[in-house]
Amino acid sequence: MPPGPPHTSAPPQTPAPPHIPATPHPAQAPPPQDPASHVRLPSGVADGMPGTPPAASAPDPASTTLAVLLIGPAGAGKTSVAKFWADRRRVPTAHISLDDVREWVRSGFADPQSGWNDNSEAQYRLARRTCGFAARNFLANGISCILDDAVFPDRPVVGLGGWKRHVGPGLLPVVLLPGLEIVLERNAERTGNRRLTDEEVARIHGRMAGWYGSGLPIIDNSQLDVAGTARALDEVLARSIASPPQW
């Protein structure tokens, strides 16, 4: 029988190197935010931790940077409430009054009480654009703002549409609408060109009633003082932040 192939032993196996887990790459820190960049206005319920009910994660209106448009007829108390509300917030807040800005025009002031004309309408439009520009500047620097204006529901393009264009879609409109007898009493206490005739006040109040059914939040402050109205405004804003009105 022929001899078989010579026996050869297998070469020794080189042991595999021990497994060393890869070192994770350190996470990149987010780039610093430009302090002058525009502040994102609340558009709904804020993101919360898993399992947190949506209502519990809604921002607190008293400490959230936001923009509010307070709507109402002459004598509704818009300016008083806006100032009081802005004074007592826990975050920086500015009050921007359309009438105050409109009265920056000293020579050539077009007083609507003398009759609406192209000049008075143009000055109102200019004041609204100026207020909107100021609001965007405040918001871009982390300062909330509240604006007040007598916006009519039958002129949405000029009123609400104009404010949305000037300030942004995050603007939160709230209607302040007490009873007619209340606005007549408050108007009677006014002086200068801000005091209107009873007939004009009644006409404006009647047009403002069109906000009912519009979907915007309405506060009837007939039985509320300024502080009570400001508290009601905070309650309304909390609901508006959690579920923004469609407008």
From TrEMBL:
Which Gene3D superfamilies would you find in this protein's record? P-loop containing nucleotide triphosphate hydrolases
What InterPro entries would the database entry show? P-loop_NTPase (IPR027417)
Bias type Pro residues, positions: 1-34
A UniProt-annotated Pfam family: AAA_33
Give me the ranges of the annotated region Disordered.
1-61
Full protein name:
ATP-binding protein
